[in-house]
Amino acid sequence: MELCCPLCQAPLARQEHSMLCPQGHRFDIARQGYVNLLPVQNKRSLHPGDTKEQVLARRAFLEAGFYTPIVEMLCRLSENGKGPVLDVGCGEGYYSTRLAKAMGASLVGLDISKEAVRFAAGQYKNAQWLCASAARLPLADSSFGLVTSLFSLTAAEEFSRVLMPGGTYIQVIAAPDHLLGLKGIIYDGLIQKEKVLTPELPGFSLEKSEPLRFSFTVEGPQVQNLLSMTPHQYRVSKAGAQRLADTQTLTDTASCIFNVYRKHS
Question: Is a pLDDT exceeding 60 seen at residue 107?
């Protein structure tokens, strides 16, 4: 897989424990094997993305199998797809490694969180892991047959650029009724906001859109892990956090939309 310099877009070549471009820009290869292609000048904060605590919480929750139906749906929608696979916002790699294995395809996982990528690289060795920004993917044009983003941002122009002609992009977004049980505990009241569930993306045609809803029950520490892996942890009040801390068992419903897009040839 050809990596590109995030500063000048020239090809990168390996030189001992670094990746180097012809202009002399150098990027470290971490001990775990991932490549840090997020220069300081491209960061919006000192430590962007998920923290170590968030990554550990999400890994504990996902490895317990609560979201297995999401993996199964992702694999089903990709069964006729072609690799290589690029997962943008890959987190610790739970979804994409299972998808790539089911497809028999090579995988590149990318996330802005160094902690998430570090855990992914430490646990899953049969993939290339990158700490980088989706705003300018450090990857060559037309390199992938499938791009995925699960509960993450969509950078349509960049996704189109790195996809091969006729390639597929699978977008997974939370539906308005996602995790209403959790929201009912941590918030004093629920405000339903209008949300576009099948957005039009430049350079793509929407082939299909499929909903997925399923219930699950979490107990003990997994209740807090559920909050920690969602953006709600940044919005919860002190009172809401206490109500959740007092909750020992929570039955909730996951609800999401799978949008399958085809890149224009």
Answer: yes
